[in-house]
Amino acid sequence: MDESLTATIRGAMPLAAHLGIEAVEGGRATVVLRGAWAAEHCTAAGVLHGGYLMTLADAAAATLAYLNLPSGATTATIEAKTNFLAAVREGAVTARAELVHAGKRTIVVQVDITADDGRLVSRTLQTQAVIGA
């Protein structure tokens, strides 16, 4: 776990702290975050809630966008599209965010979330606005 990046993410996004999201690694090309199955993160039949997965994907994408911002700028999600591909009923999930495009006005990120067994759980394509650059 990257404790410094985890603290940064949780400080900027208190919901990430509430949900127990942790940073594994982070850089300008890739950010990896982890979340865990817990009963309070589930919907019917003990399935990890799609909203939890989307929050994890959004946190990963926002962190990667933040790491690619010009000095003095900030970012905000302006579009996200997620496909859910598999249910998670136990264990942890890993979100791997990869940079697709870093422009002057937008940053585009793809986030794949996988289960502990390697199954692809979801794929998100997200656009972040570059604000104040």
What can you see in these coordinates?
- A hairpin with a 3-residue loop joins strand 1 (22-26) and strand 2 (30-36).
- The protein is built from 3 helices and 6 strands, in the order H-H-E-E-H-E-E-E-E.
- The longest helix is centred in the middle third of the chain and has 18 residues, at 50-67.
- It has helices at residues 3-12, 14-18, 50-67; strands at 22-26, 30-36, 74-84, 92-102, 106-115, 120-131.
- By secondary structure, it is of the alpha+beta class.
- It has a 6-stranded antiparallel sheet.
- The model has no long low-confidence stretch (mean pLDDT 97).
- 25% of the residues lie in helices and 42% in strands.
- The termini are far apart.
- It has one domain: Hotdog Thioesterase (Thiol Ester Dehydrase, Chain A), CATH 3.10.129.10.
> Strand percentage, roughly?
35-45%
General shape: globular
Q: Determine the fraction of residues in helical runs and give it as a percent range.
A: 10-25%
Radius of gyration: 14 Å
The assembly state of the depicted protein chains is: single chain
* Biggest sheet features: 6 strands, antiparallel
H and E order: HHEEHEEEE
Structural class: alpha+beta
Count of discrete alpha- or pi-helical segments spanning 4 or more residues: 3
How many E-type strands? 6
CATH class descriptor name: Alpha Beta
The name of the CATH architecture is Roll
Strand order, sheet with most strands = 1-2-4-5-6-3
Q: How far do the termini sit from each other? A: 31 Å
Question: Low-confidence runs (pLDDT<50, min 5 residues)?
Answer: none
**Overall mean confidence score, pLDDT:** 97
CATH homologous superfamily placement? Hotdog Thioesterase
Number of domains: 1
The CATH topology name reads Thiol Ester Dehydrase, Chain A
